From TrEMBL:
Bias kind Basic and acidic residues: ranges: 90-101, 327-345
Compositional bias annotation for Basic residues: 31-45
Subcellular location per the Swiss-Prot or TrEMBL entry: Nucleus, Nucleolus; Nucleus, Nucleoplasm
This protein's name: Ribosome biogenesis protein NOP53
PANTHER family: GLIOMA SUPPRESSOR CANDIDATE REGION GENE 2, RIBOSOME BIOGENESIS PROTEIN NOP53
A GO term, aspect molecular function: 5S rRNA binding
Function of the molecule: May play a role in ribosome biogenesis.
Domain of life of the source: Eukaryota
Region called Disordered, residue ranges: 1-48, 87-109, 283-386
Keyword Ligase attached: no
Length: 459
């Protein structure tokens, strides 16, 4: 408190300090103070007089609130003004003429607005938390690194993308809105699949509003076959003779192919009837036996082989130093011989450049021919159904009528096949669904038969 009172006395003694509130500071200073021992803490608040310090600080706060600072620090021009009376321009204007509105009249603010206004000239305290940023140290390090790269002339990838998008936006022409009553205006399909993306592509990508790019693989059809295959001209209700005969020939080839496959399977499963066992052969086998007796010589030889030890270990004799040196020199000579042979072969290849070029050319031709065949095979494979499940695709039987079954009009035409089955087979052939078969009913539990009481009474 002594330091505060000393500060107050020093400020009050200065000639430039002006007090807005009247205070009896002179009387308090002149009054005799009571001497109290302040070595103990309990006497500090009890006998300490801080009213003069509070009054001084309140006066300073009042000056800062009303004038924005201490009056001693203000200049004379900001505190006083010179009153020279009414100006000449105001006298010349005089009172306004009747019927004319008064110009230049300023509208005063409402009383409620004046109450809500901030009347203090003291600036609000600075909010330290408002200036704090999360990860400020990391962001400062990134900014310093960016400045170093910019000094070296290196542009970051993010800035390149932003610059490219801005250039693209500038070069792109703005769409001119046309009038609704313009007959030449383009037709807009309300139910179309296309979506219009408005805004910057970079902004849409970063905010997650941009649609994901559809993979090109999904745009490819699973098969090149058409959805509806048109039947040959010979399948009409009143076909041409030659077209009908061509269709019959095609159906005949299909049936012949099926018959060949069946014959092939039967041929593999066929057996000779002479090889079948009869009662006589079975009796003879039971009596005589199937295994013949072995000769005595063979049995003696097998016994000798069994007596010999299996997997006997042969101990190798230890080589002398002279033998090791000879083997080492022979190994070096063989390596030198192979190296010399390799060099002579390389020299001989220089004289065979023409034949080598011809062989390389032939090999390239063969590889190109194989590539063409492979590509043609792949193109032909696109029209064939793929293996999508455990079952193999079975083509539908050809719908063809014989010559005596032809009708001359649609009224007499007999329907062939089923439209539902045809569509189902078409989906399988175009690889849209896997080949299926009708599910077979399989009983989970066995049937249990129970005799009823009424049945027992009757029997």
């Amino acid at each position: 408190m002594a330091a505060a009172r000393r500060l107050k006395r020093v400020a009050a003694s200065q000639p430039g300090f002006l007090s807005l509130k009247s205070s009896d500071s002179t009387e308090t200073l002149s009054s005799r103070r009571k001497r109290v021992n302040k070595n103990k803490k309990k006497n500090w608040n009890k006998h300490s007089d801080i009213n003069d310090v509070e009054e001084f600080l309140e006066d300073v706060r009042l000056q800062e609130k009303t004038t924005g600072g201490l009056l001693s620090e203000k200049s004379d021009d900001s505190l006083f003004f010179l009153d020279v009376g009414q100006s000449n321009e105001a006298e010349q204007k005089g009172d306004p003429v009747e019927g004319q509105k008064r110009k230049g009249k300023q509208s005063r603010p409402l009383r409620i607005d004046l109450i809500l206004q901030h009347d203090s000239r003291v600036p609000p305290p600075k909010d330290v938390l408002a200036y704090q940023q999360p990860n400020a140290k990391k962001l400062r390090r990134i900014a310093q690194k960016a400045e170093q790269l910019a000094a070296k002339g290196v542009v970051p990838r993010r800035h390149k993308q932003l610059r490219n998008t801005r250039l693209a936006d500038r070069t792109a022409k703005k769409a001119v809105t046309e009038a609704n009553n313009n007959p030449e205006r383009g037709y807009y399909d309300l139910w179309g699949q296309e979506t219009k993306e408005s805004g910057n592509s970079w902004y849409l990508q970063q905010t997650g509003k941009k649609l994901v790019k559809r993979p090109e693989k999904l745009n490819e059809k699973p098969s090149v076959l058409p959805a509806v295959e048109v039947i040959a001209p010979g399948g009409s209700y009143n076909p041409d003779f030659f077209a009908h005969q061509a269709l019959l020939q095609k159906a005949h080839e299909v049936e012949v192919k099926k018959q060949k496959e069946e014959d092939k399977i039967e041929k593999k499963l066929a057996f000779n009837k002479e090889d079948t066992a009869t009662e006589e052969t079975i009796f003879q086998e039971q009596v005589e036996g199937l295994v013949e007796e072995e000769n005595d010589e063979e049995t003696d030889r097998k016994e000798e082989e069994e007596d010999q030890p299996i997997g006997a270990i042969a101990l190798a004799e230890k080589k002398t130093e002279r033998q090791r040196k000879r083997e080492k020199s022979d190994k070096i000579k063989e390596q030198r011989r192979l190296a010399g042979k390799r060099q002579t072969e390389q020299r001989q290849q220089l004289f065979q450049l023409r034949s080598i070029k011809m062989s390389i050319k032939q090999q390239d031709q063969k590889t190109k021919a194989k590539q063409k065949l492979r590509k043609a095979k792949q193109e032909a494979q696109k029209a064939q159904p793929r293996r999508l499940g455990r079952l193999k695709f079975q083509p539908q039987d050809m719908e063809v009528q014989l010559s005596d079954e032809l009708a001359g009009s649609l009224r007499q035409l007999k329907p062939e096949g089923s439209v539902l089955k045809d569509r189902f087979k078409s989906l399988q052939k175009r690889n849209l669904i896997e080949p299926r078969e009708r599910a077979k009913f399989k009983r989970r539990h066995k049937l249990k038969y129970v005799e009823k009481r009424a049945f027992r009474e009757i029997t």
